[in-house]
Write a structure and sequence with these properties.
Elements: E1 5-6, E2 10-15, E3 24-30, E4 33-41, E5 47-51, E6 77-78, E7 85-86, E8 93-95, E9 108-111, E10 114-118
Antiparallel strand pairs: 1-2, 2-10, 3-4, 4-5, 6-7, 7-8, 9-10
Length: 128
């Protein structure tokens, strides 16, 4: 998708129809850095976005298994390196070495069929 803006501060990252059931990875700006995020559609149809980074050690959830973000049950996002499992609806780690922590949520806005990330509200690279 071509990166377009909305309202002068939102960057388009996907069309709703293009988000597969297994999620969609995208790139966004966090300060001066390009970061990778994941879009997921939760059980009630809501779209959530998280930084693609395990809270145990700063590495992509799919580092060892590229593109595979889900556990074998399809219920939780999982870190392929550490086995940490996260609820897709709120990013809470329910098991693994970082139990109780949350994936970093990325602020979204949906306008029509387009999903936007508000890069001005992402926070700071130094936020943990």
């Amino acid at each position: 998708m071509t990166r377009t803006t909305y309202d002068g501060r939102m960057t388009a990252i996907a069309h709703l129809r293009d988000i597969p059931s297994r999620g969609l990875k995208f790139t966004y700006k966090d300060g001066p850095f390009d970061e990778q995020g994941i879009l997921v559609r939760v059980a009630d149809g809501t779209i959530r976005a998280y930084k693609n980074e395990c809270r145990h050690l700063p590495m992509p959830l799919d580092d060892r298994e590229p593109g595979d973000l889900w556990d074998e049950s399809g219920r939780h996002l999982v870190c392929s390196a550490h086995g940490a499992r996260y609820r897709p609806d709120d990013g809470l780690c329910v098991s693994g070495p970082c139990k109780g922590s949350h994936l970093k949520e990325i602020p979204l806005r949906i306008n029509g069929d387009e999903v936007y990330v508000d890069e001005t509200a992402v926070g700071s690279f130094f936020d943990v």
